[in-house]
C-alpha cells in the first residue's frame, strides 16, 4: 500500500460546499490534511471563522508549502483558469465545477498526460454518489451498455413536491429555493444544463467518447404545466428529469437529457427529494443501481473530501476507455427514434416536430397533446424553439 502523503491545501471558493468541506475537515481531522489558505472574491466579508483568507491567486500558487489545489468556485471561466494553472505547474487538483469540466475535459485529460499532474472530480457528477470512480474501477471493460439516471437534486426535489405532495410547479420551485436546493436563478437546474454537464463527464468515463454540450438534446422541466402533471397521473406515472447515454447495437452512442414519464417498475421512479439515482446496465450483469444525495453542501463536501484523501495515495483516473481506444471510440449519433408525449397550446406548434407515427391525440380549448414516435435528431433541431414556446415534451418509455 502506498504511503499516505501530507497535503497542504489552497482552497478556492468558500460558498456552501467550501464551508461544508472546511467543517468536515475540522470535524474529521484526517491525518496529514489541512487547509492553509482560502482564496475568495470579497476578502472583507465576515465568514465567522479564523482562517487565512486572500483574494490573490498568486499567494496560493506561489506558496511552496501548498501542494493541492481544491477549486470550488461557481464561475466556469475562473475554474478553468485555476485548474489549468495548477496542472501546468505540476500540482494535484480537485474540482467540483461540472460545467467547466464538461466544456474542457479532453484538454484537461491531455494536460494530465503531459504534466503528470492529477485532477480528481468525483463530486462533480452526482454529489455523494461515487459514479466516476466506480466507472473507472469496476466498469472498465467493454460490457457497459448504458448509464442513466436522475443527475440533478434540485429538479428532482421540485418534481417530488409536485407528484408526492400535490404542489404546483411554482410553489415547489419556491420551496426548493428556500431550502437551498435551487438558486435564485434556477435555470441551470430546471432547464437540464446541470444534468447535461454531468452526463458529458459520465460518458467520457463510461465509454471514452467526449460529446460537446451543443450536440446533446437537452430539455428541462421549466415548461411543465398542470396538464402534463395530470397526464402523468392518469397513466400511473411520474415525471423525472433523466440524463441518459446508451451504446446502440451497432456500437454508436446516443445521449440526451429529457423529462421521462416513468412507470413504477423503473428503478428511479422512487428516487425522491434531493437524491440522485443512477442505473448502470451491462451486457451480461444487467442493471445495477446507485443512490445518494445529489444536492447540499455536506453531501458534495464529503465527495470532495473523498477526492482529497484519494490524492494522499496518488490515485489517478486512468481514462482506460478513452486512452486505449482513442482512434476507435464509439461514434455519437442522434439517429434514434422513440416514443414521446408532446403537449402544446397553439396548433401550429405541432408542426415543430416530425412524427413517424401518432398513437394518441387530444385537443381542447386550453391545451393539446399527442403521443407518438419521433427522432432525437428532429428534437435536437428544434430544441431552442421548444424552450421558447409553451410546449412540453417527455420521453414515454414502455413499462
Structural summary, described in words:
The protein has 399 residues and is α/β, with parallel strands linked by helices. It folds into two domains: 115 residues, Rossmann fold (3-Layer(aba) Sandwich), CATH 3.40.50; 223 residues, 2-Layer Sandwich (Dihydrodipicolinate Reductase, domain 2), CATH 3.30.360.10. It is built from 15 helices and 16 strands. The protein has a six-stranded parallel β-sheet, with helices on both faces. Strand 9 and strand 10 form a beta hairpin. The radius of gyration is 22 Å and the shape is globular. The termini are far apart. The mean pLDDT is 94.
Spatially, the strands of the biggest sheet line up as: 3-2-1-4-5-6
Helix content: 25-40%
Q: Any idea how many domains? A: 2
CATH topology of the largest domain: Dihydrodipicolinate Reductase, domain 2
Low-confidence stretches: none
The CATH homologous superfamily of the largest domain corresponds to: Dihydrodipicolinate Reductase, domain 2
From the spread of the alpha carbons, the general shape counts as globular
User: In this structure, how is the largest beta sheet organized?
Assistant: 6 strands, parallel
Query: How many E-type strands?
Result: 16
CATH C-level class of the largest domain: Alpha Beta
Amino acid at each position: 500500500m502506498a504511503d499516505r502523503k501530507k497535503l497542504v491545501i489552497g482552497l478556492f471558493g468558500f460558498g456552501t460546499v467550501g464551508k461544508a468541506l472546511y467543517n468536515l475537515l475540522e470535524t474529521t481531522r484526517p491525518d496529514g490534511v489541512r487547509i492553509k489558505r482560502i482564496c475568495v472574491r470579497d476578502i472583507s466579508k465576515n465568514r465567522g471563522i479564523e482562517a487565512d483568507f486572500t483574494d490573490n491567486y498568486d499567494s496560493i500558487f506561489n506558496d511552496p508549502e501548498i501542494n493541492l489545489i481544491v477549486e470550488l468556485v461557481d464561475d466556469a471561466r475562473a475554474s478553468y483558469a485555476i485548474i489549468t494553472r495548477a496542472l501546468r505547474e505540476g500540482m494535484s487538483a480537485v474540482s467540483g465545477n461540472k460545467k467547466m469540466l464538461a466544456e474542457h475535459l479532453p484538454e484537461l485529460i491531455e494536460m494530465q498526460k503531459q504534466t503528470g499532474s492529477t485532477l480528481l472530480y468525483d463530486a462533480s457528477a452526482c454529489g455523494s454518489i461515487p459514479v466516476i470512480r466506480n466507472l473507472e474501477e469496476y466498469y472498465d471493460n467493454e460490457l457497459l451498455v448504458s448509464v442513466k439516471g436522475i443527475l440533478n437534486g434540485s429538479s428532482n426535489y421540485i418534481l417530488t413536491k409536485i407528484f408526492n405532495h400535490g404542489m404546483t410547479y411554482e410553489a415547489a420551485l419556491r420551496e426548493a429555493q428556500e431550502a437551498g436546493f435551487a438558486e435564485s436563478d434556477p435555470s441551470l437546474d430546471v432547464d437540464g444544463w446541470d444534468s447535461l454537464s454531468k452526463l458529458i463527464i459520465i460518458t467520457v468515463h463510461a465509454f471514452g467518447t467526449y460529446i460537446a454540450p451543443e450536440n446533446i438534446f437537452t430539455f428541462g422541466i421549466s415548461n411543465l404545466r398542470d396538464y402534463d402533471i395530470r397526464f402523468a397521473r392518469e397513466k400511473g406515472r411520474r415525471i423525472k428529469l433523466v440524463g441518459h447515454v446508451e451504446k446502440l447495437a451497432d456500437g454508436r452512442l446516443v445521449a440526451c437529457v429529457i423529462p421521462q414519464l416513468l412507470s413504477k417498475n423503473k428503478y428511479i421512479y422512487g428516487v425522491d427529494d434531493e437524491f440522485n439515482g443512477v442505473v448502470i446496465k451491462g451486457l451480461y450483469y444487467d442493471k445495477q443501481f446507485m443512490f445518494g444525495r445529489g444536492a447540499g453542501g455536506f453531501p458534495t463536501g464529503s465527495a470532495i473530501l473523498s477526492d482529497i484523501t484519494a490524492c494522499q495515495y496518488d490515485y489517478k483516473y486512468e481514462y482506460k476507455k478513452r486512452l486505449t481506444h482513442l482512434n476507435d471510440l464509439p461514434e455519437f449519433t442522434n439517429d434514434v427514434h422513440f416514443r414521446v408525449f408532446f403537449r402544446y397550446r397553439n396548433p401550429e406548434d405541432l408542426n415543430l416536430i416530425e412524427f413517424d407515427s401518432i398513437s394518441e391525440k387530444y385537443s381542447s380549448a386550453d391545451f393539446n397533446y399527442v403521443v407518438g414516435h419521433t427522432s432525437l435528431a428532429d428534437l435536437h433541431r428544434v430544441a431552442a424553439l421548444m424552450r421558447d414556446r409553451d410546449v412540453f415534451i417527455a420521453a414515454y418509455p414502455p413499462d
